[in-house]
Design brief:
It is a single chain. By secondary structure, this protein is an alpha/beta fold. It is built from eight helices and six strands. A hairpin with a 5-residue loop joins strand 5 and strand 6. Helix 5 packs across helix 8. The longest helix has 14 residues. The protein is globular and about 50 Å long.
Length: 192
């Protein structure tokens, strides 16, 4: 499963500096690829210092619910960040150059055998439109009813250049994925 993120979490010097925990792990494992496959943000030293990664846990839970597969773990989830750095001072809509997104996000996604790409949070709707993506459906708040029990839940779908579908979901009070029951309703609505 592929999920889009707006930007990664804040820099943690003890982990992400050139002499930090992650650099030492990469050296020990021999490559960045081997390190990334080890799940460095899930368990081990990360959990001991930072606590469980709530962002990834919520998205892994969504992947399990969407795919009806309780065995899915972080290794079955690809999170692609729109911006490769964290910022706490963003005061306007993120509007990256469409050519950059095409080259570094849409084209790599086209190589993956996934029909849907998911994005959570209202900013993704404006972003999808600003990137010139064609909206193909509107469900929930402001769109057709699909049975959601959350009055503020909105879902918009867009065509990606690859032919895949971008599914953008948001609801009041959270930029996280829907619950298991709400995911089942959404899956049913989008597969009809």
């Amino acid at each position: 499963m592929v999920v889009l993120g707006l930007n990664p979490g804040a820099y943690r010097r003890s982990f992400q500096s050139r002499d930090g925990i992650f650099a030492k792990q990469i050296a020990s494992l021999g490559s960045f690829s081997a390190w990334s496959r080890s799940g460095p943000y899930h368990g081990g030293e990360w959990d001991a210092e930072m606590g469980p990664n709530r962002f990834h846990r919520a998205r892994v839970g969504f992947a399990r619910n969407w795919l009806n597969d309780p065995a899915v773990d972080w290794s079955g989830l690809l999170v692609m960040e729109l911006y490769p750095w964290h910022s706490t001072s963003v005061t306007a809509s993120m509007t990256p150059p469409s050519g950059v997104i095409d080259t570094f996000v849409w084209q790599p996604l086209a190589d993956l055998d996934v029909p849907d790409v998911f994005a959570f949070g209202r900013p993704w709707q404006a972003l999808a439109l600003s990137l010139g993506l064609r909206q193909t459906d509107s469900l929930g708040a402001g769109g057709r009813c699909y049975g959601s029990g959350v009055e503020s839940r909105a879902v918009r779908t867009f065509d990606l250049p690859s032919g895949q579908r971008l599914v953008v979901e948001w609801h009041s009070g959270s930029a996280g994925p829907p619950s298991a029951a709400e995911t089942a309703l959404l899956r049913q609505a989008l597969t009809q």
